[in-house]
Amino acid sequence: MSRRLLIARPGHIYLATYSPASPSISIDLDLPVAGNPSWFAISPTDSSLLYTFDENAATTFLYKLDLAANTLTKAAERNDGSEGVCHLGLSKDSGIMVGSSWASGTVDIWNTSNGSLDFVKTMPSKHPQLDAGKVARAHQAVLDPTGRWFVVNDLGTDSLLVLDLASADMPLVKRAIVPNGWGPRHGVFYPPRDDDDGAAATHYMLLCEKTNRVIVYDLKYMDESIAFLPSGTYSTFVEGDAEVERTEGAAAGEIALSRDGKHVYTSNRLLNAPTETIAHFKVLQGEEGVSLELVGETSTGGKHPRMFSVSRDGGELFVGNQEGEWAVVVLKRRDDGTLEEKPVAGIRMDELVKPGGDERGPMFVLEVV
Prior knowledge:
Belongs to the cycloisomerase 2 family. Pfam families: Lactonase. GO terms for molecular function: 6-phosphogluconolactonase activity. This protein is mostly beta strands. The chain has one domain (about 5-365): Methylamine Dehydrogenase, Chain H. The chain has two helices and 28 strands. A four-stranded antiparallel β-sheet has the order 3-2-1-28, with no helix packed on it. The longest helix is centred in the middle third of the chain and has 5 residues, at about 245.
C-alpha cells in the first residue's frame, strides 16, 4: 500500500508518494513558497490542517491539505511571532501551539483552536540571572503524553523549560539544568503512548547537539511540575580511536523512538566522512531501570540529516539530507530494529535542487494520512 509524504526544503513544499511494492518515491506536488518552511505541525484532531513558518523571518502559516487533490492551500498568515522559529508543537486538542525560536531565544504561544492561528504571547527562554552570559536558543517544544506539560529544550542555556497547560497563561514552572555546553536539541518521552491513553511517561530521552550524546532521565510527576533525574548518557558514535577524526566537530540532529518503544534512532551530522549516519540504540529494561545500547550506524546516503521520521507502521525511516547525492532516502527496519545498509528507495538531490536558487536539500520529511 502506498504512503504519502510531506517534504520541505527552502523555497519548496512537496507532496510525494512512497510505493513500497516498487519501491520508489514520486513527487506529486512542488509548491514554491517564500523562505524556509523547515518544520510542520499537523493538527492531531484534523489532519488536513498544517502549521509551518518561514525560519528566515517572523512569519507563521496555516495550510489546508487535500491529499486526494494533491493540493496545499494557504489559509492564514501571521507576522507577529518571533523571528527564526525552528519548531512547532501542538496540544492534544489542537487548541494551543508552541513555537520555539533558535534565533530569538524565545517561545511563542498561539491559539489554534478550531483551525485558527491567533498570536497570544512571546516568552523569553533565558533566565536573566541563572543564564547570565549565555545566548538562549529554544529549539523544540515536546508535549508530554498526559497532555498537560510542554518541555522546551534550550540548546543555548543548557536547560529544559516546563510549561503548564493547565493554567490559562501557560506559566513556566520549572527549569531543569543540562550539563554545561551539551546543547539540548530534541527529545522524546518514553514509553510511546497512545494519544488517547493519557498515562504519564516514565523517562525522557534528550539528544544533545554539541556532545552527540543522549541523556536518559527518570521522570517524577508532581502536582506542579515534572522532575528530571539523569540516569545515564550515551554516545551516538561507535567507539574507537579511528572515530575521533570522523566525529570531530559533529553535531547531532534528530531523535526518534520506534513505535514499539524498543529502539531509539538519532542522526549524526557534520562528519568528516563522505556520508553521514543514523545511529541505532536498543532500549534495555533491567533492575536498575531503562538504559540504551548503541547497536551501530547506518549511512543516510547524503550529508546533514537534520530531520528524519519513523513511518506510521514503524517499518521504515524517512530521512532528509540537506546535502550530498541523495535528498530523501527510505531506510528499511528489520524485525530486530537494525536498519538495512542500502536504502530501499530515494530521491536524488539533482531531482529536487536546481542551480540558481537555494541549493539546500530537505529539512523535513514525514508520512501524512
